[in-house]
Structure prediction request, 199 residues.
Amino acid sequence: MHEVLQPRVENPCLKRRCSHICLIGPDLKGSCWCPKELMLATDKLNCISFKDSSFLLIAFPTMVTKMFLSKLPYSAIADITKTKLISLTNVKPISSIDCIVQNMSLFFAVESGGFIAKSKFKENSLKDWKKIVPVEDSVTSVAVDWITGNIFWISTAKPQIQVATSDGLYKTILIGDGLYNPLCIAIHPPTGVLFFSKN
Prediction:
């Protein structure tokens, strides 16, 4: 466009103070953008790493997927928002997962008994997993206390809520008598409260 045809306005990006890239739109307003490996924070000014954003872990029968919850540009959705962390083709289907974000540990249980396992995840991949708690019964739900590291789970054939240490030791039954059709368990570590739902 010839210089004479360009509107004379102050550069809106000077006031915007974007951390990385500022683009001027047709309305002559500046908006902040980020390189492909970063995303725009909620302040709409600064770019942050994907690892610093909120995410959701989703368990499928034979894999665990991590999905970032922040709004992303359409071009990045296919390869960044859904990242397969682990594929478990050599074990029974996954029945439940939980994680400790502080040390990036993923805990998962498998259907039809067997075990509860643990793995570390870093960026978009999981390190080798290992069995930590042998379980004789099916597990419908697992929850981990991120303060103590204790692992809680619900077994089904004998409806019970059980607990063990993070290395699988000192297994004990917390609630056994009078528990019918328990479905899900959750822990609120700061208050030490355990929640569970029944069918």
About this structure: Residues 30 and 117 are 49 Å apart (CA to CA). The chain has a mean pLDDT of 80. Helices lie at 12-16, 74-81. The radius of gyration is 23 Å.
